[in-house]
Structure to design on (318 residues):
């Protein structure tokens, strides 16, 4: 039986808007001047994480998903793609204004298994930082007209954020992460983005970056409705658990550990990202150290475990 966490190596991604906080704040070896994303729990073909320990060391998470289904409560080989993707994003500059399709549109138009519903936990935000979340258009004709005329100031809704804020972003929501924000993103395992506006930036070759106004107009939710958030909190020994969101694709928690706790695994498997502090996880009398920037999966073969230390984590499952 597989009786240890599956620790994962982040995959670093270059982005025009990226900075250096993935190196300075998390200690990752960033290969680019503008490193915007660390795909920290990923089985997506555009950046699969490698396993760092145990019998599957050196394999990718995708390998494990396809060949070792019991770890994820799957019988035999996987007929579906790994469902989730966890990232840390460092927005040194504004990200493009964008929108993602739902499953049915992504499958029909892009021939990929998943659309993209996502959520953000704000790890850091400079004073005055803000997100774009939603729009003011009353119907699709009004949305298309505002896009074509570049009426961005009147069209887009802006939201100030600070560290510790949580934002749920269903597919079809126009959005953008603003400059000076670092987030941990939990999302469906999809890399489909329709760019709406990009501040007239150019790529490394001096060419304007592509926009996808037709697709964006087709998939955007109209009118925009802010999701209703109901955060539920419970305490297990010295662990405070805040359930940030529970919906069709994922459930996401914030764990605040201040001592010791014994827990049972929830979901078919559990994804864990340490965002602050140090701790240990103990499984079958084996102890594994945890610290900020460590990401791992508790597989289905592990039913219970204990934690000890002082740390904060973002935890998710399907």
């Amino acid at each position: 039986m597989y009786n240890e966490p599956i620790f994962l190596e982040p995959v670093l991604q270059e982005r025009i808007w990226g900075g250096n906080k993935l190196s300075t704040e998390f200690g990752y070896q960033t290969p680019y001047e503008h490193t915007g994303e660390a795909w920290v729990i990923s089985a997506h073909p555009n950046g699969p994480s490698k396993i760092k320990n145990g019998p599957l060391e050196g394999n990718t998470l995708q390998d494990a998903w396809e060949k070792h289904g019991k770890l994820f409560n799957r019988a035999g080989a996987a007929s579906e793609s790994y469902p989730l993707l966890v990232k840390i994003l460092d927005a040194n500059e504004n990200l493009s204004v964008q929108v993602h399709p739902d499953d049915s549109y992504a499958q029909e138009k892009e021939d990929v298994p998943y659309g993209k519903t996502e959520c953000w936990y704000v790890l850091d935000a400079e004073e005055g930082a803000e997100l774009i979340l939603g729009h003011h258009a009353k119907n699709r004709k009004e949305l298309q007209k505002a896009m074509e005329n570049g009426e961005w100031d009147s069209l887009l809704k802006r939201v100030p954020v600070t560290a510790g804020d949580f934002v749920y972003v269903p597919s079809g929501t126009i959005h953008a992460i603003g400059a000076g924000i670092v987030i941990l993103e939990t999302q469906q395992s999809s890399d489909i983005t329709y760019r709406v506006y990009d501040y007239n930036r150019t790529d490394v070759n001096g060419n304007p970056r592509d926009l996808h106004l037709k697709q964006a107009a087709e998939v955007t939710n109209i009118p925009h409705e802010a999701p209703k958030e109901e955060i539920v909190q419970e305490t297990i020994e010295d662990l405070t658990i805040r359930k940030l969101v529970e919906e069709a694709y994922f459930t996401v928690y914030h764990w605040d550990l201040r001592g010791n706790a014994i827990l049972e695994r929830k979901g078919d498997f559990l994804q864990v990202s340490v965002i602050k502090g140090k701790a240990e996880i103990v499984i079958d009398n084996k102890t594994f150290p945890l610290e900020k920037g460590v990401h791992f999966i508790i597989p289905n073969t592990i039913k219970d475990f204990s934690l000890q230390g002082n740390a904060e984590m973002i935890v998710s499952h399907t």
Observations:
- The chain has two domains: 6-219, 232-317.
- DSSP finds six helices and 20 strands in the chain.
